[in-house]
Each structure stands twice: as structure tokens, then as C-alpha cells.
Amino acid sequence: MLRGTREVHQTRLNNIWQKMCEYLGLSEYEAKVYIALIESGHANARTLSIISGVPRTKVYSVLKKLIDINLVIEIPEELRKFAPTPPETALKSYLKSYQSLVENLVSVVTSLEETFRKTKDEEKLQRGEIWIIKGRQEILKKIREMLSRTKFN
After folding, report:
1. Residue 132 DSSP symbol
2. What is the DSSP letter of 70?
3. Beta carbons of 81 and 44 less than 8 angstroms apart
């Protein structure tokens, strides 16, 4: 990989693991190990430590957590190897949860918007003018003013 391309790739991966932490509730180490597995296809703990930058003493506990939440599977061999669960499969429950959350939020916004519009419409109906007219002259003046604004068909 070219130097500039490698830097762009690394920046992209940093964005991805940060978003995985934010959206999925993963720790930094969990996100980095999962991404390292996605990149390598499968690996042992030592290799994952090197690729991900996660200390080797932490890799097994991180892998156990990732296995528990179905992001990683262990490949039965002499040397323990691990593979990522395909992202679409692994993250399907997260997507459904977020879709449900978005649908609920849209429903709340729609209800609030309907109530807002209804309140505004009622406000328009309730709004009116109040006149204080004292004496015959003022009454006649107001009647003339109202009649002058009246349009006859």
C-alpha cells in the first residue's frame, strides 16, 4: 500500500472504530480487535494484538466479550484462531434496534407536529379584536368603517 493511501486507510479505520464504540457501545479495544479480524479474515491472539494495537494481555478478554455478543467466533484448531462474524449478520440486531428507535422518534415528532398545528389553528380561531366604543358618535363611526370594508356580491 502506498504511504498516502495507508494514511487514508488508517484514518478511515480510526473513524470506524470510534463509530463502533459510539453506536454499538463497544470499548476501544473491542472495536479495534473486531476491525483487525475483519481486515485479516482470521487470526490468533498474538497476531490480533499486533494488528489492532491492543495489548496481548487484554486480547483474550476482549475476544471473549466479542464472542459473547456474537461478533467473533473461535475456529477450533491447535493454535486458537478467531474469525469475525460477517458484519451484516453480526450487526443486524443493532440495525433493527436503531430502525425501531428511529420509527418511534418519527412517530413522536409526527404527533407533536399534529398537536402543534392544531393548537395554531385553534389559536387563529380564538384570536379576535376587541373594540371599546363609547358614545353614539363612535358607534356610528365604527359601523361606517365596517360597512366600507364590506364587499357585496
Report:
1. -
2. T
3. yes
Residue 69: which residues within 8 A CB-CB, separation 6 or more? none
Lookup: cell for 11: 484514518
d(CA 106, CA 112): 10
Structural domains of the chain in order of their starting residue, each with its CATH number:
3-87 (1.10.10.10), 93-149 (no CATH)
- Is the Cβ–Cβ distance between 37 and 43 less than 8 Å? yes
**DSSP state, 150?**
-
φ, ψ dihedrals at 72, nearest 5°: -135, 150
* Helix (H) or strand (E) run with residue 107 in it: helix 92-126
Q: SS3 sequence, 47-64? A: HHHHHHCCCHHHHHHHHH
Cell of 2: 502506498
For 99-125, write each residue's pLDDT tens digit: 888 898 889 989 989 888 888 776 666
What pLDDT shows up at residue 24?
83
Q: Do residues 119 and 125 lie in contact, with contact meaning Cβ atoms separated by under 8 Å?
A: no
